[in-house]
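Hey L., structure's done. Input below.
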Amino acid sequence: MEDHVQPTSPLGAQRKWLRRLLRTTVALCFLVCILCGYFYWRLHSSLPQLTGKIAAPTIKAEVQVARDGQGVPSIEGQSRVDIAFALGFVHAQDRYFQMDLLRRMSGGRLAELAGPSALPSDRRFRRHRFQSLAEKVCQNLPADKRAVLSAYTAGVNHGLSSLKDYPFEYLVLNQSPALWQETDSILVMMTMLCDLQPMDGRGEIGLGVLKEKVAPEVFNFLVRSGSHWDAALDGSEFPMPQVPPAEVFTLRDNASFSNDNLYALQTEKTPWASSVVNDPDFMVGSNNWAVGNGVGRDSRAILASDMHLGLNVPTIWYRAFMKGPCLNGQQRSLVGVTLPGTPVLIEGSNGKVAWGFTNSYGDYGDIVELKRPDPTKSQYVTSSGIEELQTFEEELLYPGGKEVLSYRWSKWGPVVEERDQRLFVHCWIGNDPKAFDLNLIDFEIANTTQEAMAIANRSGMPNQNVTVADDQGNIGWTLSGRIPKRPGPPSLVPVDWSQGVGEWQGYLTPEEYPRLYNPEDGRIWTANNRIMGTDYLNKVGDGRFDPGARARQIRDRLYEKDQFTEDDLLAVQLDDEARFMKVWKERLLETSAVNPNKLSSEFIQHVEKSSDRASVDAVGYRIISEFRLQTLSRIFGIEAGRSSITAPTKIKGLARKLGITQNFAISRDAVADQLLKERPMHWLPSEYSSWDELLLDAAQAAQVRLSESGPLTDATWGKRNRARIKHPLSQAVSALSFILDMHPHELPGDSHMPRVQSPSGGASQRMVVSPGEEEKGYYHQPGGQSGHPLSRFYSAGYEDWVYGNKSPLLPGPSEYQLKLVPLN
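Output:
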């Protein structure tokens, strides 16, 4: 009898398939849980130890590190060297990956960590030879400051090694961190300098292209050192240039317009950069001001400072309170911000003196065009004869590959531009080891405003406006960093040094620096604007100052009262009134009036009811802002501001007439204001028959743009100005954003007002302090102390920054106590 296999029923087969699917799914879920648990365990293992004792090499006596509820450390030690060790320790435990990026940026070694996407950045930085420069800086440090740097370096490496696992970013990248070197702290300083100054002189190169294309009258009209918003400390004002006549320049013909071979000024950027801001209307800068001489409460001096930079996760600054002896043995309590990777208090108060910085936007470099007897060879002319360009070749490494970079140097600096067989080099303070030192640490021992100003003048650091206040009621302003000593006024365009004419004659002595001490009216303010008049410009130069509207509004606020408290100065920091925009509101309403029924009544009603503030619920402000940007794009024919609009292709504008694309270093708003006031027909783009037609076109474009995604009532300023404060990893891998980035709050403020704010740029901190009464001071920053997403300190304080809460400068009560004890 034959055996017969019974056929499986369809229902039985289906059940069998479902059982297999269920077993496979359970197994996969189990495997995923194991992997997630393993990764979470690894992630949790990289959190720092906050309590107990840790034996530490090199320190001579116990150092206490107490943290408050926001993770702000209070470090107390018996020597400045031991305190530096402890600061390096906490920096490494909370922010090592950030420090690593900062040193790799200027060292030209980002691609080793981040891969080929960072090669454009490495190419730019490597040719400046910052690594060898940092070695020279370290060699030149005096013994006491070198000891602080050595102790800090040891603290960093001990903090890193004391973690149970690598910082989490290295787990994600499947890499391991390299140990910290003394030169790395200098590289961090160099990265900050490159954030604040154009290391390749791109603006000066672009202005040189412009000057070759236009008559002198046109160049002077477009590139002016002053504006009608100027608010210089000495009250100086410059006459505005006249509009060049039609026989000199006109936009009413089609001659010279071209869409080909346009000269582009954009600079390569990488998502790993330390200060990426995707907003052409935002400029790296800052505000600071001080009141004294009876203007501050109780006859005290009070300082306010907020530094404007790109906003990232973690924040740029690391809060710290340090108590103990300084290098000269004086006992001091220091409070303020440090920069992860460096051993000094960057900005804050020592109990006697408080200091704050804003970028000065002076001219601290010159683009030199080399004169070459034979453009096919590497020889160039100098006042001492013919010299040969040096050629360097270096390997740029990245995971899985490498490339060879070749670059050239002259006696004045690196070749930064090659165009039509012409070579341009950048002679810049940032390529001189004298531009860097640790003299900033001497602010810790300053007893008076005048002492602090003298320290600023001899400190090798970025060239900043330094505003100072002391506990005796004195205030002052001066500049920090090295200032080139030139035989004449600094040039806005490339120069010829082949005959020795114009070459630098070293640097200004501290006695030659501009300064202001105890002005009679008891008020000092700076906001990246022109600070003083002609003598100042002849020394410092014009690195393309902020137009001045922000400085003017701060100045005017400081004259609204006879006396100010810390609360009053914080209110000025949070001021989002749009005084700069009032003229644009008037233009838009006038445009509607002369063009009835061309704009919707709802559109105009929002403008009429505008509160004149850049508040998150403001529809009218957003309309006015968009109208300004659309107008600028039509006049200049280039991208204009935060809305990332580009000029309509039919519009040629100034950019295409001049053959220059992108935002070039002209006085854009001042030029536009003058043109729209005087309305010269020969400066009107040829696509329009009148200035009214241009303004109507801009207004209609604004209306369409703001209505295209929904009702106009939904087009609030807050929806446009929503925070994009991102971690470098989420900038590279967007799926990590919900874990790593700050909450995308809607933010008040804009570029031309005290409360400077864009989605990814703005106040990197806010501080208000009267030295000696730090307990009454305030502090904000856009993120927490820790760079670890599992830490309770990761976003602590962020909400205070968003909403302007009155959060204290001094740390709160201690919640965690850690002791670093000598190894023996």
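The longest helix spans residues 10-45. The radius of gyration is 29 Å.

-- N.
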